[in-house]
Amino acid sequence: MKMIIAVIQPEKLESVKEALFNAEVHKMTVSRVRGCGQQMGFTEHYRGQVRSVNLLEKIRIEIAVNDEFVQDTIKAIVKGAKSGNIGDGKIFVMPLEECIRIRTDETGSDAIG
Question: Could you list the residue range(s) of the whole structural domain that residue 8 is in?
Answer without folding.
Answer: 2-112
